[in-house]
Amino acid sequence: DALLQIRPERPPYFRMMEKVNLQGEPILGAIPAPRPHSPQGFSDLVHEAQIVDTRTELGFAAAHVPDAQFIWRDGLASFAGWFLSYQKPILLVTDDNDTEEAVRILIRLGFDKISGFLAGGMLKWHMAGMPSHSQQTILVQDLCHLLDQGYQISILGVRTEAELNRDGRIPGAERSHVTHIAERRDE
């Protein structure tokens, strides 16, 4: 009853899951074991793939492969279906022990075109002299201080309406649920 009242949005991957439920799952034989790629080998593939970084938000913010999509490992099951394409292969950047779990989650969602992962992670990437991007982060307390001081800051809230009603809102924040970020990226 509660779900019918709030009418949650349907992730794009639901269409694929409906197809799988009607036609049956593709037979893979075994869970794919993605190939480890050296930084150079990984770099050679990035233009034809979607890069998924499943490390922590702080690790991603500190340094990530250019054009990588951040979906933390524990968020893969909830968000991969919103952001990833079934048509393009996937390359993974993970913490050392998370690759197998990330692959298992993606396979369960029907993403079986996993081309490999960055062997040695971001440490090897940097040691090979490859370019990376970073994102500045700020503590909540520091943000509150800046707002209290009257600084004009653009804030994008990505929580659901229910979360906003339960936990409160930041005055003046623009709102776009996290699931709409990809389609509004140019804004």
Protein architecture, described:
- The chain is α/β, with parallel strands linked by helices and 187 residues long.
- It has nine helices and seven strands; from the N terminus they run ααβαβαβαβαβααβαβ.
- Helices cover 37% and strands 11% of the residues.
- A five-stranded parallel β-sheet has the order 1-5-4-2-3.
- β2, α4 and β3 (69-70) form a beta-alpha-beta unit.
- The mean pLDDT is 86.
What low-confidence regions span 5 or more consecutive residues with pLDDT below 50?
none
Strand order of the largest sheet: 1-5-4-2-3
Radius of gyration: 19 Å
Principal-axes geometry comes out as flat
DSSP helix fraction? 25-40%
**For the terminal residues, how far apart are their CA atoms?**
35 Å
The total count of strands amounts to: 7
For this structure, the quaternary state is single chain
Derived structural class? alpha/beta
What is the strand content?
Answer: 5-15%
Order of helices and strands: HHEHEHEHEHEHHEHE
Biggest sheet overview: 5 strands, parallel
Contiguous helical run count: 9
Average pLDDT level: 86
Index terms:
9 helices, alpha/beta, 187 residues, two-stranded parallel sheet, single chain, five-stranded parallel sheet, flat
Quick structural gist:
The chain is built from nine helices and seven strands, in the order ααβαβαβαβαβααβαβ. With 187 residues, the chain is α/β, with parallel strands linked by helices.
